[in-house]
Every structure is written in structure tokens, then in C-alpha cells.
Amino acid sequence: MALRDIKARIDSTKKTKQITKAMEMVSAAKLNRAEQNARSFGPYVDKIQEVVGSIASGSSNAKHSMLLTRPVKKTGYFIVTADRGLAGAYNSNILRHVYRTILERHKSPDEYALIVIGKVGVNFFKSRKMSVMDSITGVADQPSFAEIKAIASKAVGLYADGTFDELYMYYNHYVSAIQSDLTEKKLLPLTDIATTKSSSSYEYEPSEDEILEVLLPQYAESLIYGALLDAKAAEHASRMTAMRNATDNANELIGQLTLSYNRERQAAITQEITEIVGGVAALE
Amino acid sequence: MKTIQVSVVTPDGPVFEGNAKMVSAKAKSGELGILPGHIPLVAPLTISAVRVHDVDGKTQYVAVSGGFIEVRPEKVTILAESAEVAGDIEVDRARASKERAEKRLADNKQDNVDSVRAEFALKRAINRIDVAAKR
Q1: Assessment of whether the complete model's pTM goes beyond 0.90
Q2: Taking CA atoms, what residue in A is nearest to B81?
Q3: CB distance from B105 to chain A under 8 Å?
Q4: Average per-residue pLDDT in chain A?
Q5: How do beta strands B22-27 and B48-53 pair?
């Protein structure tokens, strides 16, 4: 390769590196914020879980439709993906798994309904001719509850009015900056409420059933929001890791190119000297 | 003097923490006044102001919407979808969303989901304006 070509490649790789490096740092900052958000959401969900748990354990006669398993005719899937790629295997992990699961479980498209967050997920299902019942894209990096409320309450409403009889949620659970786990969670019916043995048995005003009417949808919505915060943290983490890998690769490539650039240059100099020496020898 | 711990939590994080002589809130079934040592209670709240009467005799107002109150003898927890302390409310924004909701209600006379939602938004905005006026 000519000297100039190598030089051009080194330059362009350096520019790419600058970009990936910047994206890595942006993602690191966003990850920090996302972790904070998840943390400040903690007290809310803990408390609501405690109250739901104590109502569920305290009373056997409270029968809310969200607590009861019913025969399944249609299954809902709530899938959380990102709006953009460049995040390693973040999106493909989830989508591949969900796609396979759906094909395994269902024979006809009437048996399932999809609710998708994120552009990547929406495009994935569209290109496979699977209809997406509802979707939202362009979720902020630090989503507020108000942003998510509409789609969360719609998902819960679709269960309540019998459009589907169970609801699964798929998202990447954030473990650490370098690890996130694909998580499948059965959201509705709420079967796995931890029955806390809290000593206080509550008075209900006006009645248990009416409390559950308010509380359970709010609980389910908060679980969805919690999953989204978790997924956001995982997204930033995996984007950060992907960008760090890209930066490392660019460094390596620049190293190799610089080496061959120097070799090439040295070869050119040596050749020039040989030619001069040869020329002088011919004159004598 | 006996006091009761009060905390208001939303999905976006805790909004208010403090101690109080008394807490009053508007539940769906009516006004509730809670003193220290109240029996354990759970009740859904309306879109309204929660009043926290603190030890110095001052009253703090918190606008809450879509939530419920959990009472224990020594602690009151309010879990709301959104909540704001009176001092933090941006009145201009609340006014703007009130106008928006009013307009949407006027445009859309039928009784459908949109108008129900607009009505809720209007209630929330009015509540926030009211609460902000009390600071």
C-alpha cells in the first residue's frame, strides 16, 4: 500500500476513535443517571409491594381479576428494546429470544399480542409481518413516570378488559456495567406477590376490594416502569461496553497501521539512498 | 409531644420527608385526619392537597394525584403517581396545562377516553394551582 493511503486510513480510524470514545463517555454519564433513577424508584416499589403483599396475605376473600389465573386464549408480550443500535447484543438478545418463544408457543397470530417499546423492536416485528398492537418510541434516556404511564396503563387495561389473559414482560436486567441478563417476567396475573408477614393488619377505607381496584393497576404499572428503568440502565451499560470495545479495536488498528507506515517509509528512504549511491558509483 | 413520620413517594423518587403533629388528606371516602398512633389504615386518595401540620405549627401542602395513603401508628406513607410540594410547583406550567386541558374539553364534547383524560389533567392542574397559592 502506498504511503499516502496508509496515512489516510490512520487519519480516518483516528476520527472514528474520537467518536466512539465520546459515545462511550456519554453512555457512562447516562448510565450513572440511570442507576440513580433506578435507585430513587426503589422506595416506591418496595412500599407498594409491601402493601399489596399484606393485603393479599391478610385476606383470602379478596378476589380481584388481576390476581386470578384464567384460561389463556391470548397472550400479551411487553418487550423493551432501545431506539438505537450500537449497543452490542442488547437488542438482538431480546428480540431473538422473544421471536423464538412466540414461534414455539403459538400457532397462529391470533394467539398473541405485542406491545413494544423502542424503534429497533418495532422495526424487527414489522419486517417479520407480526402486528404490533401498541408501541412507543423515542423514550427519553431518563424516562419519567408520566412518559410511561400511558402505555403501561394501556397494557394493564388490555388485560383487565380481557383482550389478553396473561402478560409477559421481556427486558434486559442490569447487573453491572459489563453484564446484563435477559429477563422474562410474568406480569399479569399477579401470581407471585410475596405475602409479607407484616404484623399490622390494615383497616381498609372504604373496602378491601375498592383498594385493590386502585392499588393493583398502580402496582402493575409501577412494575412496568421499574422494568423500563432497569432496561435503560442495561442499555447504557451495554452501549458503553460496545463503544469501549470499538475504541480498543481502533487503537489496535492504528498501532498496526502506524507500524506498516513506518516500515514503508523506511523502505522508501533506503531505496532512495541505494539509488543515490548507485548513481554516484556509476559516475566515478 | 408525639409526632408522626410522613413520607411522600412517587415513582420518580421521594418528594417529601418530615415529622408532623397531624396529617390531613382527602380520601375517596372523605376527609381523613391522622394523628400519631392511628390504627393501620390503607385508603385511596383523590387528586387533592395533603396537609402536613408540623411541629412548629406550620402547615406544608403537597399536591398529590393518583395515589393512596398507608398509615401505621408511627408512620404515614403516601404513594402517589405524581406529587409536588407547594414550593416546587411551577405555576406557569400548571396554568398552561390547565388551559390545554380546558381547550381539549371544549373541543371534544363526546364522552370518550380523551375527554376523561383531559378532565383528569384539568383536575390535576387546578389542584396544583390551588396548592401553589397556599405556600
Answers
A1: no
A2: A145
A3: no
A4: 87
A5: antiparallel
